[in-house]
Specification:
With about 400 residues, this protein is an all-alpha fold. It has one domain: Ammonium transporter fold (Orthogonal Bundle), CATH 1.10.3430.10. About 70% of the residues lie in helices and about 0% in strands. The protein contains 14 helices and no strands. α1 packs antiparallel against α7, α4 runs antiparallel to α12 and α8 runs antiparallel to α9. The longest helix has about 30 residues. The N and C termini lie far apart (about 55 Å).
Amino acid sequence: MFDTGNTGFMLVATSLVMLMTPGLAFFYGGLVGRKNVLTIMIQSFVSMGITTIVWWVYGYSLCFSGGEGGVIGNLDKAFMMGVTLTTPSPYGSGNIPEYVFMAYQMMFAIITPALITGAFSNRVRFSAYLMFLVGWLTFVYFPFAHMVWGNGLLAKLGVLDFAGGIVVHNIAGMAALASVLYVGRRRVGDSVPHSIPLVALGTGLLWFGWYGFNAGSELKVDAVTGVAFLNTDIAASFAGPTWMLLAWIFEKKPKFLGLLTGAVAGLATITPCAGYVTPASAAIIGILAGGICYLAVNLKNHLHWDDALDVWGVHGVGGALGVILLGVLASKAVNPAGVDGLLNGNSGFFAKQLITVIVSSAYAFLFTYVMLWGINKITPVRTTEGEEERGLDDSLHGESAYQGV
């Protein structure tokens, strides 16, 4: 009944996407100061537990059960009710078990809210973050996952997002910006990054896992899987050096951190496009990602937004850019299940992608801001100046990443 090759491939892809969350923890952990390493890392790791629980209880069902053409699904598959060992996946070719599809999509849900944490590092209480995690998944991530990938409203309108430009990166980046503006600037200066080797390790794990993130989104092994894999690498490989070159020109030094950040920007930007564009287009996307995300981060600095780890500039701008570029560069010659973009004469598809970016950005920003305001009425979101001075690892968690810190 099931194709063992496709099932095996999807289990590997699921494992790769799972690895991205620890990779993100190392990436963010290296970027913060020595007194806040564990605080930022636990925010990624706890999502692996809490999101899995929420996903099994009701999240998967809201995303992928019922609600055809709507904003959200139903609870028919809450607790995976009605799903057996022989139930085929309702998406893709249907020749993998639904349990495997559920697990694969769960890994996307785990990493998306974890991305946001880099924006408000060093100044948010853990209890408030846990409330934020569950609320944001329920009211932001689940509706967009359903609308785009669960045969919901945006899918019916013809919007495409191969692996998460809208569903993951754009809405997470806009939520990050809302978090920064609500929480405010750090009161205590942080000596960052404290460990660029940790950032490099995290980047390597993210890059490696991204092959499962993008290639796995085909949900089977075919030529599109191969081009999505290749496009992922090409975009990152062009974006990293582009960012590094710009830093070399404007900051007078070729920065290793710039190379790493640029590569992640390229990975985020190619995500919605990976299975719909040519490798040549992926190179263009990588160059634009490196340049535009670099400019976005500099704009953020100029505006004095304290997005500590550049989540908005890399993921928010990168995800939005990728969705828009898909509207320009998409080609049915690459993927017959896709559409042609603006350069191939389809201006209507470009308009849909552009409008979707605007609407999704506005909703993610506004809801996140209001939700933080609501959480703050229940428990303080912001840490105290004394806690920040002491370091959140010790003041919130009673632990230290390094002896003597």
